[in-house]
Design goal:
Chain lengths: 452, 447
C-alpha cells in the first residue's frame, strides 16, 4: 500500500505540518516515533514456552507505558497482531490493552500481514496521525512459536460441528459414530506456503541458488549480525528499548562469541536437493522465536505536551508483492520490487540513506535483495528500471544486529526494527533510514524513517 | 517475608499459650492507614515546671488537629503522652514530669506513643546541658520499657527553634502517627525554623517530582509507593536487568521507569535529562539503590569490595553533586540517603557494606550546608532489620536472632523505612538537615 501522500513526488520534510492541500485533500502533519519497548526475544521452547501471545504483548505494552509514563492515558489507538494466532485471540490487541496499565478507554485493532505485521501497524497508525485522526498510537506485534495454535483435523471439525447442530440425542450419537482414530491427528501451523507446499527456507534456498549467493557470504552476514547486536548490548543501546521478561534480559538467540569457524561447522538444512551446493544452515537462518515489541507514535504536539523527544519521523512506506507461485520471483523478494516505487515517490536513490534495516529472515534473503538491486539485468527486466539501483554501503546495514542474532518472532520484528532505527537516527541527529521486511505470501513492506 | 512467630503469638490458641508460657510477644504494630485517627486515644501533654508555655503551645497545635488533649493524668487510656522539657534548667527538674509520665504508662494504649520535646545541650550552661542530655538517656531507656507496639521518641530543638517551628510540629505529628511505627528510641534533631506546614497533611508532596533509585523491589518500591501516596510524581530507577519489576512499580504509581545503572559514568546526566525533559523540575531524590557482598575482610576480594562502595556511596555522591550543579532542583530540594545500622554499629562480614553506609552518613553531614544554601535538606535513614527479599536469605537462626534484637522484638517492613523517608522529603521536614534517622525498632546494637 502507498502512504496517502498523493499529490506530489517531492521529498517529505519534517518540521511544521504541511500546508493544507487542495480541496478534498486533507492537510497532513508529521507522525513521529517517540520510542519503543520490546521484551527480549526467546528461542521457541525456551524462556517463554509457557507465555501466550497475550502475556507477551501485554508485557511489552506495560514496559512501554512505564517508560513513557502513560499509565491511565487514553492512547488514540493501539494496533498489533500475531502471525501464529489462536482463534480465541480474535481481539488480541484490545485484550492486551485491557490487561495493561493504559486507560481501558484506549481502542485497539488487530492487523495481520505475515512478517510485515509489525511494520504495517506502524505505517497504518502513522497515517492516521498524519491525517489528524489520532494524536498518539502504539504499534506492535507478538508471536509465539512455542504456544502455537494446534487445530483438530478438518474431518473431525466437520463431525463436531454436525454434533453441535444436531437436535436430538439420537442424531448426536449418529454423528459421534462417524469419528475415526485418524481424525485425531492435529494440524500444527508450519511455515509452508499453501500454494507451493514449500517451506520458507526451501523457497529462499531456490532464490539463494538462483543468485549464486555463497555459504561464506551468508555466514559473514550472520556473524556481523551477532557481533553488532552484542556490541549494541554492551553499549547500553537497548537500555531504553527493552524491558526484561521472565528472567531474560537479552535475546536468547544471541551468540556474542560465534565465529566464522563455528558457523562453517553447521550442516546445511535447506536446499539440499537443488543440484547446487546447499548453503543455508541454522546459523544463517533465523530460528523460531517468541517475543513481542511495541512502538510509541505521536504527533509533535502530543509528544511535546508530555516532554517526550521525538526520535524519528515516519516518512513514507510502500508494500509490494511478487508472483512466487509461478516462480517468476523468489518468495521473499517483494521488498526489492516495492523499493524503486518508494524511492521514486520520495525523490531518493538507494544510496541516500545513513542506515539500512533489511530484515534477516535468512542471510540469503538480505544478500539476494542487495544482489537484485545491484543487477542491471534484474532491475531492467524485473523492476522495469533504466538501470540498477546500485549497491549500498554495507557498514550502514543492520548496525545494531538484526533477526539472525536477535531472533524473529514474526509480527514482533517490525517494531524491533522501527524502534532501534529511530533511536539510531536520533543519536546521529540527522539522516534517513530505510527498512525492508519480507513476508510470507510473496509480500514485503519497505519504509523510510528520518531523524526528527 | 512473613514473621510466623509474630503471627502465632497474636492469634488464637497460640496467643493464649505464649501468654501462659511467658514467651516474648512482639505486637502487631500500628501503621498508618489513610483516614485512621492520628493516635489511638486522648493525648496527655506533660511538662516540667518551667516549660508550661511551650506545653500550652503544643497542646494548642494538637487541638488544631482535632485531638482529645489532656493536661493532667487521669484514668483514661492514652493514645500518646507528649512530655515538654524545653525549658528544663537542671537535672533535678526532670523528676516531676517523668514520674508523672511513669504514673500513666500503664494506661498507654497498644501502639501508643511517648514523645519528648527538649532542647539540644550544645553551648548551654553545664546544669542546663546536663538536664537536656539527661532527656536522651531517659528516653532511650524508656523506649526499651514500653510494650504492645508503643514507642518512645524525642524531638530535640536547637536554641532559637520554637515548638511552633514547622519541623517541630511536623516531627511531632510524624512521631505520633502510625507512619513512625518502627522508629523507636530515636531523637530527631530540628536545627532550624525552615520548612513549611503542608496545606494537606495527607498529601504533603503534592506537585513535587521525586526520583527513587533501586526502586524495582523491596524498600525502594515501598518508597516509590509512599511518595506517590503522599502526592509526588515518581520516577523510579533501577538497573536494566530489573526492568520488568521496575515497570510494574512505575505503572502502579503512575510514574515513569528509567532503566539506569547508577554507577554508569553518565548516570547523573541521563537522570537529569529524563527528569528535565519529562517534568521540568526535581524536588526529591532518594538514593536507595544498594547492594551487599558480605565476606570477612580476611577473605575480601576487589570484586566484592568495589561494587558495594560504588553503588552504595560513590553513586549518591556523584549524583548529588551533579544535581546541585544542574540548576534543575526545585526551590526546596530534599536529598535522602540510605545508611544502615551496620554503618553505625558495624556488622561482622560487612566491612565493605559498613564502610559504604557510614560513608552515606558522612556524605549527608558534609552536604548539609550546600543543600541549605539551595533551600533544601539532605538527610539519611538508617534501617535496622527490615523484612525484605534480602534479609529473607539470611539463615533461619541468624535471622530469628537479628529480627528479635530490638525493643519491638520484630523486623520492620519496607513501608516503615519508606514512611520516614517520605517524612524527610516533606515540606514540614525543612528544618531537619544533615541528620540520620534510624528506623530499627531501637535495635540493641549500635545504640
Amino acid at each position: 500500500m502507498a502512504a496517502p501522500r498523493s499529490t506530489t513526488g517531492s521529498t517529505p520534510t519534517g518540521g511544521a505540518p504541511d500546508s493544507p492541500g487542495p480541496a478534498g485533500t486533507p492537510a497532513t502533519r508529521r507522525a513521529v516515533v517517540v520510542g519503543g519497548n520490546r521484551i527480549p526475544f526467546a528461542r521457541a521452547g525456551g524462556a517463554y514456552t509457557r507465555a501466550t501471545n497475550l502475556d507477551m504483548l501485554t508485557a511489552a505494552l506495560d514496559g512501554l507505558v512505564a517508560r513513557f509514563g502513560l499509565a491511565d492515558e487514553r492512547i488514540g489507538e493501539v494496533a498489533a497482531g500475531a502471525v501464529l494466532k489462536h482463534s480465541r485471540d480474535f481481539n488480541l490487541t484490545r485484550e492486551a490493552v485491557l490487561g495493561s496499565a493504559l486507560s481501558p478507554e484506549t481502542p485497539a485493532y488487530d492487523l495481520q500481514q505475515a512478517c510485515a505485521t509489525g511494520l504495517e501497524t506502524v505505517v497504518g497508525l502513522s497515517n492516521k496521525i498524519r491525517l489528524g485522526q489520532i494524536d498518539s498510537a502504539v504499534a506492535g506485534g507478538v508471536d509465539s512459536a512455542s504456544d502455537a495454535p494446534i487445530v483438530v483435523s478438518d474431518p473431525l471439525r466437520a463431525v463436531i460441528l454436525d454434533i453441535n447442530r444436531a437436535r436430538t440425542t439420537g442424531q448426536k450419537l449418529k454423528h459421534i459414530t462417524r469419528i475415526r482414530p485418524g481424525h485425531f491427528t492435529p494440524s500444527a501451523p508450519d511455515t509452508a506456503e499453501p500454494r507451493t507446499g514449500l517451506s520458507m527456507g526451501e523457497h529462499q534456498a531456490l532464490t539463494t541458488a538462483a543468485f549464486a549467493i555463497t555459504r561464506e557470504a551468508q555466514d559473514e552476514l550472520a556473524l556481523a549480525s551477532h557481533h553488532n547486536l552484542a556490541a549494541a548490548y554492551e553499549a547500553g543501546f537497548f537500555d531504553d528499548l527493552m524491558t526484561p521478561y521472565r528472567g531474560l534480559t537479552r535475546d536468547a538467540n544471541l551468540r556474542a562469541d560465534t565465529s566464522m569457524e563455528k558457523l562453517a561447522s553447521l550442516k546445511p538444512v535447506f536446499g539440499k536437493r537443488l543440484g547446487a551446493p546447499a548453503t543455508m544452515t541454522a546459523g544463517n537462518s533465523t530460528p523460531l522465536t517468541d517475543g513481542a515489541s511495541t512502538v510509541l507514535l505521536a504527533s509533535d504536539d502530543w509528544a511535546e505536551q508530555r516532554g517526550l523527544r521525538p526520535l524519528a519521523t515516519v516518512v513514507d512506506a510502500e508494500a509490494g508483492a511478487v508472483d512466487f507461485v509461478h516462480g517468476r520471483d523468489g518468495l521473499l523478494m517483494a521488498g526489492v520490487h516495492a523499493m524503486p516505487r518508494l524511492l521514486a515517490r520520495n525523490g531518493l536513490t538507494l544510496q541516500d540513506f545513513d542506515f539500512y534495516e533489511i530484515h534477516e529472515a535468512f542471510a540469503g534473503t538480505v544478500l539476494c535483495n542487495l544482489a537484485a538491486w545491484e543487477s542491471e539485468e534484474y532491475c531492467r527486466e524485473r523492476l522495469g528500471l533504466d538501470r540498477a539501483l546500485g549497491s549500498i554501503d554495507r557498514a550502514k546495514l543492520n548496525v545494531h544486529g538484526s533477526s539472525l542474532a536477535a531472533g524473529h518472532p514474526f509480527a514482533a520484528t517490525g517494531g524491533r526494527i522501527v524502534a532501534s532505527l529511530a533511536k539510531a537516527l536520533a543519536a546521529k541527529g540527522s539522516g534517513r533510514g530505510l527498512i525492508s521486511v519480507c513476508a510470507a505470501g510473496g509480500q514485503g513492506v519497505v519504509a523510510i524513517l528520518e531523524a526528527a | 517475608m512473613t514473621d510466623t512467630y509474630l503471627n502465632l503469638v497474636n492469634s488464637g490458641f497460640t496467643k493464649k499459650l505464649a501468654k501462659q508460657l511467658g514467651l516474648p510477644r512482639p505486637a502487631v504494630l500500628r501503621r498508618h492507614s489513610p483516614g485512621a485517627p492520628l493516635v489511638p486515644g486522648p493525648v496527655l501533654v506533660l511538662a516540667d515546671a518551667a516549660s508550661g508555655k511551650d506545653a500550652d503551645a503544643l497542646a494548642a497545635t494538637l487541638l488544631d488537629w482535632d485531638l482529645d488533649v489532656r493536661r493532667h493524668g487521669g484514668d483514661d487510656r492514652y493514645g500518646a503522652v507528649v512530655v515538654v522539657l524545653t525549658e528544663v534548667g537542671a537535672p533535678a527538674e526532670l523528676g516531676a514530669p517523668m514520674l508523672e509520665l511513669g504514673g500513666v504508662l500503664r494506661s498507654l494504649a497498644p501502639g501508643g506513643r511517648v514523645v519528648t520535646v527538649s532542647r539540644a545541650p550544645s553551648d548551654a550552661a553545664p546544669a542546663v546541658a546536663a538536664a537536656r542530655q539527661g532527656v536522651d538517656g531517659m528516653l532511650r531507656s524508656l523506649a526499651k520499657e514500653l510494650r504492645a507496639g508503643a514507642t518512645g521518641n524525642g524531638i530535640v530543638l536547637d536554641d532559637g527553634v520554637g515548638v511552633d517551628a514547622p519541623s517541630a510540629v511536623g516531627a511531632l505529628r510524624f512521631l505520633l502517627s502510625g507512619r513512625s511505627a518502627f522508629v523507636d528510641g530515636q531523637l530527631v534533631h530540628v536545627g532550624s525554623t525552615g520548612g513549611a506546614v503542608p496545606a494537606d497533611w495527607d498529601r504533603p508532596l503534592d506537585g513535587t517530582v521525586a526520583v527513587v533509585t533501586g526502586a524495582a523491589r523491596g524498600i525502594g518500591a515501598a518508597i516509590a509507593r509512599t511518595l506517590s501516596r503522599d502526592g509526588a510524581t515518581v520516577v523510579v530507577v533501577d538497573v536494566p536487568g530489573a526492568g520488568d519489576a521496575l515497570a510494574k512499580v512505575a505503572n502502579e504509581v503512575r510514574g515513569t521507569a528509567l532503566q539506569l545503572d547508577v554507577t554508569a559514568d553518565d548516570a547523573a546526566q541521563r537522570l537529569l535529562e529524563h527528569v528535565s525533559a519529562r517534568y521540568g523540575r526535581l524536588d526529591v531524590v532518594v538514593h536507595n539503590a544498594g547492594i551487599l557482598r558480605d565476606k570477612l575482610l580476611v577473605n575480601m576480594r576487589p570484586e566484592r569490595w568495589d561494587p558495594v562502595l560504588a553503588v552504595n556511596v560513590t553513586a549518591p555522591l556523584r549524583i548529588t553533586e551533579a544535581l546541585l550543579a544542574s540548576g534543575t532542583l526545585g526551590p526546596a530540594p530534599r536529598v535522602i540517603g540510605l545508611a544502615s545500622t551496620s554503618g553505625i554499629a558495624g556488622n561482622r562480614g560487612q566491612t565493605n557494606y559498613g564502610a559504604s553506609k557510614a560513608g552515606v552518613i558522612g556524605m549527608v553531614r558534609a552536604s548539609a550546608t550546600a543543600l541549605a544554601s539551595a533551600g533544601g535538606t539532605i538527610n539519611a535513614v538508617a534501617p535496622g532489620f527490615i523484612e525484605t527479599d534480602m534479609t529473607a536469605r539470611i539463615p533461619f537462626a541468624t535471622r530469628e536472632v537479628a529480627r528479635r534484637l530490638n525493643s519491638l522484638q520484630q523486623g520492620g517492613q519496607p513501608i516503615d523505612v519508606a514512611e520516614t523517608i517520605a517524612f524527610l522529603a516533606s515540606p514540614q521536614a525543612g528544618g531537619i538537615n544533615g541528620q540520620v534517622v534510624r528506623v530499627c525498632g531501637q535495635n540493641m546494637v549500635g545504640a
